Amino acid sequence: MYIASNGDRVEVFSLWSMNDWTKGIFTEVGKYNGLLTMTPGNPIKWVWSNNTPPVNLPFCDYDNHLCFKTVLVAVFLFHQYRHIQKQRAIDEAWVAPWHTLKIHREEKDKEKAREKKKMLAMTAVKKDNETVSGVSMGASMGTSMGASMGASMGASMGESMGADRVGATAFWNQIAVTIRISKKLQVYMTNTVMKQARAALKMEHDHIAVFMGACIEREHVMCLYGYCSKGSLFGAIASSKFKLDWTVKFSFIIDCIKGLTYVHNSPLKVHGRLTSLCCYVDSSFLLKITDYGMDSFFDLTVAELWGARRDPEYRLVQVWKAPEHLLREASTQTEVINSVSVAGDIYSLGIIMQELILRLPPFGMFPEMEPGDILEAVKRSTERGNAPFKPIIEEGACSAELNALVKKCFSLDPVKRPSVGDMRKVLREQGRLLGMTDHSSILDTLLLQMEEQSSRLQAIVDEKGKDLLEEKLRSDTLLYRILPKEIAETLKKGLKPNPESFELVTVTFLDILGFPTIASESTPLQVIDFLNEFYKFMDDTIVKFDAYKVESLNDTTLVVSGLPVRNGILHAREIGRLALTVLFKINSFKIKHRPDDQVKLRTGLHSGPVVAGVVGQRLPHFCLFGDTINICSRMLTSGEPLKIQLSSMTKNILETFGSFRLVERGEIFVKGKGAMKTYWLMGEDGNMELLELQRKFEEEDIDEDFADAGS
Q1: In degrees rounded to 5, what are phi and psi of residue 671?
Q2: What architecture (CATH level 2) is domain 98-419?
Q3: How crowded is residue 332: how many other Cβ atoms within 10 Å of its Cβ?
């Protein structure tokens, strides 16, 4: 038992029991260090037959006069016991045994660790070109603070910060938490510690990280806070991947001030350890403060301080401390004197604001100085006659009002530093220029300002995602032009589409009569331009119908309806209307290099069964197979210009609709089939669009034979 520096009595007892009565051997059955812990498998062995400790007196004494009093006392003690047990359960619930924590560190991935260290070493000035209307908040810092300014400082701080060691991620009871590792070797469960934990558990605010618990075991002393997925503010400032425009910077400043205001108005009254290392950003880009309260976890003993002073990370954390606290803090042979104040928090807040404004580490404008050199310079500046040593924010790096506010935070006289309330008043007007209200979050502001823009916080990711989506859309569009959508989707999944039989579809061949002559009398480029225009004319027409263009070979086009999606007998109607539309509109198609020539179109239709499948792997091609294709080809080659010839099979299906006008041609000889009766498709009654196209077509009087055939 000993008396700690804060006056608490610290007790550590061992409980021993004679469990071997014959040999008189005592064994340890429990320990007490604030909480009694019994040794598993080694209970106290009582001499009584029922192995229970004896009582001093019978329950009601020997004359039973204590029964009434005993009942009252028992009720009172029972309620007290329940209260103590409930409070003990609360006090024990936040204690996290070390073996229940699963620490996750990115250092396990050496490549990630190397990359992160490289980024921290390159925390140089980045020019902010954003400007705010009326306030030049986004002006660049100038050539005097060039790319090399923060390199040395960033490297030394990146080397010393140990950010992932101090603030890492862990899983406790299957819940993700942010851990803040302390330099304390061990924390004992004293009344002071339990009182601090109770106060921390009551802290609730949007900009205060929730205190989840703590580990107090030797060499594993740490506090657990609510998980913040974006990491520490120090890491965000140092990372080139974290986009920090003025809206984000200003929002983080406001969030930090709001959180600090809550701490100052709470029973804690002061934070005392405010740094950008203990400020974290959650998934909603809200800044949250940790390390509040729990002084027993951060106040070091003399022995612990001697070890900590050799740690570069400890010197780095001191850079955020106010000059008066650096001077007041000292150590005697028995205890360490720690100095904290509200004004000291304002100085630390000013350092954080400097980090955000310049996107530099603390005092990053002095890249040649190590953290230890900075601390000595700050201490010397408090001596009479020496110039103040404080961060420098050049004009143009932010608005004049914000610059003046930060300079007040660095005042050597604590009384002259502004309060958090005064700072919020000054920044309220600055926020209005950015479209931010006093109660709006960064997400609210971004939604208002960037409704027609992608998020600037993840600009690179969003831009790449947008490009990827557009490229995928272009690829899909191109693929759907080559293959039917259903088959294309199957190929995209890595599957091989199986050939499929279709019982009844309607196909049509269309070609240009006299194309070989046109091609022979034209240059290759003219032929290509002519075919491109013709294909576009055909594609623009086909897309209006439930039909699919299977292929185009020179001047010949094959179109089918009824596959890959079956449509009953509608395929004949769709192909019939398509053929009539192309025929009636062909007079509007002109050959650019032969404007006097009129395209003479031949069309053949037939209905029947086909097999559809994809042929080829490197260049997959959708093909139709079956006798239906051959017969349709014969309908084309035996046809006449500007006429639509169809088989009796297609004619029978069209007659079921009762609107198509058909004229019997008679029997013709079809190679491989013999004599076949065929028909001419003349038009469709009741279809006003087709009737209008037919009227214009006939007025052109393109071919007198067409008029004769219709009579």
Answers
A1: -60, 125
A2: Orthogonal Bundle (1.10)
A3: 9
